[in-house]
Amino acid sequence: MHLRVLDLSHNKITGVMPDCWNHSHANLEVMDFSYNNLHGSIPASTCSGNIPLTYLYLNNNNLSGEIPSSLKGCGWLSTLDLSYNNMNGSIPTWFAANLSSLQFLQLHANMFTGSIPPELGSLESLQVIDLANNHLSGAIPHSLGNFTAMKTAPDLSSATIESYMDHIKANIKGRVDNYDKILLLLTYIDLSDNELSGEIPEEIGTLSYLVSLKLFRNHLSGKLPKEIGNMVSLESLDLSMNNLSGSIPQSMVELSFLSHLNLSYNNFSGQIPNRGQFLTFQDQSIYFGNHGLCGLPLNVSCQTYQSSQPPNSQRGVLDDDDDDDDDEDESVWFYSGIALGFVLGLCVVCSILLLNRKWRFAYFRYVDDSYSSFYVFVAVNLGKIGRESS
Fold first, then answer.
1. CATH 3.80.10.10 residue ranges in the chain?
2. pLDDT (mean) for 20-43
3. How far is CA 364 from CA 43, 350, 351, in A?
4. Per CATH, the architecture of 78-318 is what?
5. Does the keyword Transferase apply (predicted)?
6. Whether the predicted model's global pTM rises above the 0.70 cut
């Protein structure tokens, strides 16, 4: 039998998948059961017969259970799409050793748990890794910076089999698009909507051909690594709804292709970069929830913000009580200095008058003359006022 493509997608097929994928389908390269109502687990016979399966689409069904170890036999597999199912368990560590040809891995919207295996970093051909909307925890592995296909220009000489066009639906810039003819140009990482924690590894900045990076709705913390400015092909970056802090790296102004940015609801602070591609981001909402940010497009002047900051830059929150105490201390010292200066000046004058007889006579004569002049001035003016009133 020479069946190479089995495409039963977008139907209303129900029930479980047949468990007969062995030697009877020795030439099968494409298996597409996507967009149906299948339930149950993935058959144990899948890839058990050493078939050259290259594309496996089981997405948008009701499949459950763990990823079967029988997929270890899918050594030719380029695309594995299990997204939008009810699958659980952990992501197998054997992906790296047994599926070395994998280019597109999509496990979006399932119930996978555990951490992201660091071994995935050895998948040199991987262009797309979508693990979003699961229950993954732990840190983002530093090894994700090893994806060779996200560091180098794509090999456009590659081609799919004549009878089937490989395809992927992806949300890159806020909308879902279908990618097929330009699929070789598509590179993205989506780890959003999980329970990931820790810092964003600086190694991710080496992925200079990555088009989209989505890490939103996690528990990531720490500063945004300045190496992100080296991701010169980046078009979409979404880091919203995390606990990231520090300033927005100035290196990001070099991302000349960046057209979709969301940094909202973190703890970023300081001035928003005002050069390069940042001048095109006029939507304030992409910075909402970062109370320490200032500058355009926000209506927060950086001068006003900086003048309200405490002298110690390491203090994250203003302490009003401490500020009031400092102001009160300064006032006490100011008025104390005035009083002390007045007393010292009076002492100097009195000392001169006591020690120098001529100055003392001159001083009292001046006081007496001033008193007489003032008395005459008052008397004359009072007399004039009395005559005018009569």
1. 78-318
2. 85
3. 118, 12, 15
4. Alpha-Beta Horseshoe (3.80)
5. yes
6. yes
